[in-house]
């Protein structure tokens, strides 16, 4: 075991990170320790200095008994350095430069470097984080652009559960990246073009019900579409008529154009109502129709460059080398399809925004589509990172909302029900509040419950939504976290009732109980949790972090007195509470969930 020499403590904001010329604030805890570990390995093995990619990531230990953080780089170096990993780790530990955050280094097992974080350092760092609304989170996205394609429902059709998940997950990714400083272009890629409009227009002319259209436009449009579609299946003349309507629309016939515009507007009004309710905003709503004009040129280019070939009258791109089926880019009847539009969209976005990445959020059924589109885009010279973030379809309780019959009205009913159920909860917890305030809180809790039930799951796992789980006050749910927030926020108020709140910051943060230290270290990991959730495109990683934070808090709360603790310790604890409240509020906000001061 080796202890780093004692170092004078100084506020984190002023301390320079050795050799980088940057201040600690610009690095997360894990980044800082990883930089240090890399230096340790390089000091022991100068050959590593020539390997620019060599990294020695330090992550949190799985078990507390192994210290606060761990680096297992020695295992990966055994082959290159031709030494047993344990010897490599020992050499690194012995050669490690001092770092104020590292109180002790220990080599364990086959060659792990286990670190113990210095208490005083952690306390100073926490003081700085607690005073910062970002809790010390850096903004690595500054100057970088991300296009996020999410929600993207289809006109004249109700949003199905896939669109809802896309909206909730996409919006969390949107918030996470903006928080990290990215310029995010959130684009709602509406399905507002295609053969279905011929069928819809024809159907509309024959069996539109103006009253129903007024009352529930999207529902009525879908009814019309289904009726017309069914007729087209049996009736050839009807099919031909639908095709003629489509051609007229494509050629700009004013009447059909006006109908189409109306369908788009009616649908958008309903979608917008849902977005407003969910707190979702887009920078752009460029539907598929936006790219119409670009399609013929794109196809001409693909033919010219020999990227596409004729196949039974259609035009396709062979993707055999990539183990993918051919990608159809022009149908036999000369029409373009979903893939063609997506290719034009990629090129347009690359040109217009020069993004570092374009990210698509849809359900799992579109995996092949995006693999194909991305492969063809590469051949068209696109270098931008393209990512498909997919999720499984969530199962919803019987009768509430199902994939087949789910519709916009029912989604709104689901949200209504969430708010009603939350209202019962709020009435029980805060009977003294005026009704209007109870309702406002219930709105935040109900919506939060629905969103969190989605966001807290691994996106690719099969999830069944249940009210009991979503609204549980004692489980991994939004109400649990919101309730924890409200309770924690009140600690400060209670303190201010009895003591001088201005005195709080005059007392340093310090750890006198293991539960306190554990909570503090977890707080210092907030920036890493945010970064990880953003870079993996997995909001659930942040949800996991927040849940664990609330649990660490509740252990702290149960173990030690706050207001009855001796002066100094009391202030330190109240300050730690303040940091927890801040982290919960900032973290839930990144998930699109509000934190009322009371529940
Ligand atoms: N409108 C499509 C659907 O409902 C989703 C669009 C996703 N975005 C895209 N660029 N293809 O399935």
What does this entry look like structurally?
The chain has helices at residues 29-44, 73-81, 85-95, 119-130, 161-179, 196-207, 210-215, 217-234, 236-250, 254-278, 295-304, 338-353, 367-379, 408-429, 435-455, 467-471, 478-498, 514-524, 526-535, 539-559, 569-590; strands at residues 2-3, 58-60, 69-71, 102-108, 112-117, 145-149, 183-187, 309-311, 314-317, 327-330, 357-363, 385-391. With 599 residues, it is of the alpha/beta class. The chain folds into three domains: 16-131, 2-Layer Sandwich (Gyrase A, domain 2); 145-193 and 252-395, Rossmann fold (3-Layer(aba) Sandwich), CATH 3.40.50; 446-590, Isoleucyl-tRNA Synthetase, Domain 1 (Orthogonal Bundle). The strands form three sheets. Strands 1-4-5-3-2 form a five-stranded antiparallel sheet. It has a four-stranded parallel sheet with strand order 7-6-11-12. Strands 8-9-10 form a three-stranded antiparallel sheet. Helix 18 (514-524) packs parallel to helix 21 (569-590). The longest helix has 25 residues, at 254-278. Mean pLDDT is 91; it is low at 1-25 and 399-408. The site of arginine has 10 residues, from helix 12 and strand 11.
Supply the key terms.
alpha/beta, 3 domains, 21 helices, Rossmann fold, disordered N terminus, binds arginine, Gyrase A, domain 2
